[in-house]
Design goal:
Blueprint: H1 13-16, E1 38-54, E2 57-75, E3 85-86, E4 96-97, E5 102-120, E6 126-147, E7 158-159, E8 178-200, E9 205-228, H2 236-240, E10 244-245, H3 247-250, E11 260-266, E12 273-295, E13 298-309, E14 312-313, E15 325-326, E16 329-342, E17 346-367, E18 374-398, E19 401-416, H4 440-444, E20 465-477, E21 480-491, E22 494-495, E23 505-506, E24 509-520, E25 525-532, E26 540-547, E27 557-563, E28 568-575
Length: about 575
């Protein structure tokens, strides 16, 4: 090890070669665990809208408030073992170990918005709209709250020290028995002024122009704490059997990042290390469009839009990332399309688009070498381009039958992206890797991770081809109507990371769903019966690799596959008062 902090903080099945449960070895969709995924979700929302009709002008107010609290517990040790046992670290060292580990994740978010619009209502070829917008969001995120719930020794850790004389100084209490903690409390505010003009030149031709100014402000207060036990980070713990608080060295929080307004400090009563972040961004955006409608059944259009997305922080990590700020993202979007109805029975909509991104914000997921947990951070890639085509068709051969067929094509690539390191392929030995920006010394040292040029890589979650067909038929009765619907979706293989490697790729899959929907004649209630994934296809909604860095399996890559739910069926009842 070149650094004592490159090891996982506490032992687990992967790092020490402990046997996994038998279920995990039987099939890809099996698992063996004692701490399952427990989810709790609370949410509520309110909306308000009011319009004042004046001579030639409508004044409209729109307001809303939403709150939700999402909590998730996940198993981290990957086994169902609970009883403590002596860990065979060496021939002379077999300290006591409690294998059970879990993580408590939480999102608590609330936001409200206010918008005031003034829109023309008089007759004439020129119509306009101007408005003001305000948005405020507060949130508390706990990204990592990893615990050894059965190990009481974590309640009374010692402080990290390289000096044997000070290695047993007591750290702040840790009653939750955590070994990794990272959270953030955040406030985001956005203000905008906008306007739009529509000019109907002729009966067939209309032009649209819009302009918007947006200002965003964000603030975050971070908290982090880290412990280790039995690893290279804290060899003294193999002797004392007491966890060691390594927060000061693993999460120093020092940086020249301009967003840091409150330098990192440690609260001596809680042991948590804190840091404050704040920054602001702004952008001018707009749109230009032209609509041509030569007849009632045809509409052709062309549109240009300049877009902006505020920057942000990679906050709430357990290691208080040094470079925490992402810049704003901008886009120049071009789209052309046509909508056509043939004989009143067949409608076809086709569109082609080109998106030119500058400083696009891309998440990169990798294994944190300090906590041994998967973490996702946003980086600005200098340039990306997206080219796409969509075709939607609706055919109604008879009055009560509709047949739909949709196809989409997407080519989304990074055009400038250098230089980044793949934590699952640190030396860049996978097929297709282009190494760049490495010194001769780094190339010669087999322990050094090498930079990769990601030009040409596909953007995460950009599915190249997707095809959907649907058939629905409506039966009409005196008491109401019954709609039967069947949908089939095929989705092409997809990468879920900018590192386009086999371990981040999901295979192509398809899924068939069906539903019956009953509406009474008075439209007071609706009953929906549904079956999703009728044929239990193994659809994949995500794929991620994690390299094993210690133990007998060092160098191998574990794959984590997120599957869509298996066959699911149910009944939903809606009643309107």
């Amino acid at each position: 090890m070149t650094s004592p902090l490159q090891a996982a903080l506490t032992p687990n099945s992967a790092t020490l070669g402990l046997p996994l449960g038998t279920a995990a070895m039987q099939c890809q969709m099996c698992f063996d665990t004692d701490d399952g995924n427990y989810i709790n979700l609370e949410n509520n929302g309110y909306n308000f809208q009011a319009t004042l009709h004046l001579d030639n002008i409508d004044v409209k107010y729109l307001g809303g408030y939403t709150y939700y609290d999402y909590r998730l517990q996940t198993d981290l040790d990957g086994t169902s073992r609970q009883a403590a046992f002596n860990l065979p670290l060496s021939a002379t060292s077999t300290p006591l170990y409690y294998p059970r580990r879990n993580n408590q994740y939480q999102e608590e978010v609330w936001w409200f918005s206010n918008e005031l619009n003034f829109a023309s209502t008089y007759d004439g070829p020129v119509q306009w709209l101007i408005g003001l917008y305000q948005f405020r969001e507060g949130s508390n995120y706990t990204l990592s709250d990893a615990r050894h719930p059965d190990d009481p020794r974590f309640e009374n850790p010692t402080l990290f020290s390289l000096n044997p004389a000070t290695q047993l100084i007591a750290a702040a209490p840790n009653p939750e028995r955590r070994y990794a903690y990272g959270s953030s409390s955040n406030v985001s505010e956005s203000y905008a002024a906008f306007g739009q003009v529509d000019w109907q030149f002729t009966d067939e031709l209309k032009a649209t122009a819009g302009l918007r100014y947006t200002h965003d402000e964000k603030k975050s207060f971070e908290s982090a704490r880290l412990f280790c036990l039995y690893t290279a980070t804290c060899p003294i713990s193999r002797v004392t059997g007491r966890p060691v608080d390594v927060t000061a060295v693993a999460s120093p929080g020092t940086s020249t990042d301009p967003s840091i307004y409150l330098p990192a400090y440690t609260d001596p009563t809680t042991g948590l290390r804190h840091r404050g972040l704040k920054n602001s961004w702004s952008g001018v955006t707009g749109t230009l469009g032209l609509d041509w409608q030569p007849d009632p059944d045809t509409l052709a259009y062309a549109k240009y839009t300049r877009g902006y997305k505020a920057g942000g922080f990679n906050s709430g990590t357990t290691t208080l990332t040094p470079n925490v700020t992402t810049k704003e993202e901008t886009i120049d979007a071009y789209e052309v399309g046509v909508k056509k109805t043939f004989g009143g029975r067949l409608q076809a909509n086709a569109s082609a688009f080109f998106y030119d991104y500058q400083d696009i914000q891309i998440p990169i997921t990798g294994r944190d070498p300090v906590t041994d947990l998967n973490v996702t951070r946003f980086f600005n890639m200098p340039k990306a381009e997206v080219l796409g085509f969509e075709l939607e068709t609706i055919w109604q051969p008879i009055d009560n039958l509709q047949l739909l067929a949709n196809y989409s094509y997407l080519s989304a690539e990074l055009k400038e992206a250098c230089c980044f390191q793949d934590p699952e392929d640190p030396r860049g030995i996978q097929d297709g890797v282009v190494l760049a920006g490495n010194t001769p010394a780094a190339i010669a040292n087999p322990a050094t991770a090498l930079n990769q040029d990601l030009k040409g890589a596909k953007l995460p979650s950009s599915t190249p081809h997707r095809f959907t067909v649907n058939a629905n038929y409506t039966w009409v009765f005196d008491a109401g109507s019954l709609v039967g619907s069947v949908t089939h979706v095929w989705k092409d293989e997809t990468y879920y990371s900018i590192f386009n490697r086999y371990y981040n790729q999901a295979k192509a899959w398809n899924q068939t769903d069906a539903r019956l929907l009953w509406n009474d004649a008075d439209d007071r209630f609706t009953v929906i019966g549904y079956v999703k994934n009728i044929f239990e296809q193994e659809g994949v909604s995500g794929a991620d690799g994690s390299r094993i860095n210690t133990g007998p399996n060092t160098g191998y890559v574990n794959r984590t596959i997120s599957y869509v739910p298996p066959r699911t069926y149910g009944v939903e009842v809606q009643y309107r008062f």
